[in-house]
Fold:
Amino acid sequence: MLQLKEKELIQKTLKEVAAFLSPPQPLNKDFSNEDLELLYSVATSLHHAGDTAQAGEIFHQLALSYPLTQKYWKGIGSCFQSENNWEKAAKAWEMATLIQREDPLPYVHLAECCFSMDDAKKGIEALKTAKSLNIKDCKEVTKKIHFLETIWCQEEQRGA
Structure:
C-alpha cells in the first residue's frame, strides 16, 4: 500500500508527464485483461520493429488508463529513449521507479537519460540506486551498470 507521501509524489509526477503526453483521452475501461495484454504486446512489437511513435501512443493510452502499471511507463520510457528524447524518457522512467521502487532496471535507464542530458549528479544517484537494488544480481542489469560506470569514469577522466 502506498503511503500518502508516495501518492502525492506519483500524482505530481503524473501531472508533469501528462503535460507532454497527448491526446488526453484514456482507453475504454471495459477492456479485459486479455485485451490489455494484446495491446501491450502490439505496442512492444511495434517498438521492436522501430515504430516508436505508434508504440508510444499505445503505451501512452495504456498508462493513462492504468497509471499504476509499471510496464506501461517502461514502454513509454523506452520509446522516448529510442527517439533520444531524454527529458521525456527520464520522466517516464521516474514514474516507473515510483511505482515499483525495488526494480533496478528503470533506474539504469534513468541514469542513461540523465547522462545524456549532462546531469551527472542525478545519473550517478540513479546508478547507485540501481546497484543497491540489484540484489538478485541480474546479469543484464549488472552489465548495464558496469557499462555506464565504465563509460562515465572515462568521461570524467577526460574532462578532469
Notes: The helical segments are 4-18, 33-48, 52-65, 70-82, 86-99, 104-116, 120-133, 139-159. The first helix runs from residue 4 to 18. The chain has a mean pLDDT of 84.
